[in-house]
Design goal:
2 strands, A middle domain of Talin 1, two-stranded antiparallel ribbon, mainly alpha, 356 residues
Length: 356
């Protein structure tokens, strides 16, 4: 983790490049890499606050603030009108967790420990819930054309709002269930594994200060990052799909990804699988609905209408996650298979033109 904090030097580089008229590629790259350690600091401060709140409330805090960095980035993307980028980032976050993170975890853990076992009941339940979330995300897309023909575009917006409300309700109820039953990431052993050394010893004012400072800097860099997107698209020939599917999820979730791989290397596969699938669930059930309502409040409505390729990728990833989870065992070859699928999808989205 100390290596990540070395990237903080890129924070002033990004800001100077942005306001002194530096190359857009430099601005974008420095801002993206600068957000990574800030997201790590935000995540660690969140864990410290969660520990202070007690074992039950901690699950609610972790679940709500776990994707704060990505929410901030997509907030500025919505404000800039980059709605395809936002939807691609939702797709990319779910794909990244189910294919990249799980794949790396299975690969590293399998190479170190051989055949690994985990609780197939909990993993299967999470995978099933994720498949249901992906189905919910796909409903507006599948019905949008017929609805537009019959009643117009506004009806699609209302459908997206209704689906977002239902998904958010499920998320709130799941957090309430964890709060009442003390399950999931609120377990003390999970918090101990995910919380950084020495962070819980911070006084409250320092924890809150870390949250405020990291959030403010992430917001500033996110604005810089989004402002550089269109010039970078022109210069490098990238598409909004590729940046959204690959770059944005990596920027916002690198720390959590590393934690999942580290605990897999320690043969704690229940925790590793929980982080990978649980993060995907948070994106589908919390981040996506919140963005729908935020976009409406900002006057730039975001509908949950994904293109065919995004839906196919999401469906395939959720099925693969379910297949891997069903036997309660994993090995390094399964990790390789997941990583190959992620690589193929990343290449496909790289060549897919925006609006495809």
């Amino acid at each position: 983790m100390n290596v990540l904090y070395g990237l903080l030097i890129l924070v002033p580089v990004a800001l100077l490049s942005r306001y002194l008229g530096g190359p857009a590629v430099l601005t974008f790259g420095a801002a993206a890499l600068g957000i990574v350690p800030l997201a790590a600091l935000l995540g660690r401060a969140t864990e410290a606050l969660a520990e202070r709140a007690g074992p039950r409330v901690s699950g609610l805090i972790n679940g709500t603030l776990g994707n704060a960095a990505e929410l901030i980035i997509t907030f500025f993307a919505i404000r800039a009108g980059l709605l395809e980028l936002v939807k691609a980032s939702i797709t990319g976050s779910i794909l990244g967790n189910l294919l990249l993170v799980m794949g790396l975890s299975l690969l590293v853990g399998g190479l170190r420990h051989g055949l690994q076992k985990f609780d197939r009941t909990q993993a299967g339940l999470n995978a099933t819930m994720l498949m249901l979330a992906v189905i919910a995300l796909g409903i507006p897309s599948l019905f949008s054309h017929a609805i537009e023909v019959g009643t117009g575009h506004m009806a699609v917006e209302y459908l997206s709002l209704g689906v977002a409300g239902a998904m958010l309700l499920v998320y709130v109820l799941s957090q309430f269930y964890l709060l009442r039953n003390g399950g999931g990431d609120s377990r003390p052993d999970v918090l101990h594994s995910r919380a950084p050394s020495g962070m819980s010893a911070w006084p409250l004012w320092k924890t809150l200060g870390g949250l405020a400072l990291s959030t403010a800097l992430i917001a500033w860099l996110s604005e810089v990052l989004v402002a550089a997107v269109e010039p970078v698209l022109e210069h490098l020939g990238w598409t909004e799909f590729f940046i959204g599917v690959v770059i944005i999820p990596l920027v916002g979730n690198t720390t959590e990804h590393l934690v999942a791989v580290q605990v897999a290397a320690k043969d704690e596969m229940d925790l590793s699988m929980g982080i990978a699938v649980g993060s995907g669930l948070q994106v589908a059930l919390f981040v996506a609905p919140v963005l729908v309502f935020l976009s409406l409040a900002m006057g730039n409505p975001l509908t949950l209408v994904f293109n065919t390729f995004e839906l196919a990728a999401l469906g395939a990833a959720s099925i693969i996650a379910a297949l891997v989870s069903q036997d309660g065992e994993s090995n390094w070859m399964e990790g390789v298979q997941l990583l190959v699928v992620y690589l193929i999808l990343a290449l496909a989205f790289y060549f897919l033109p925006t609006g495809g």
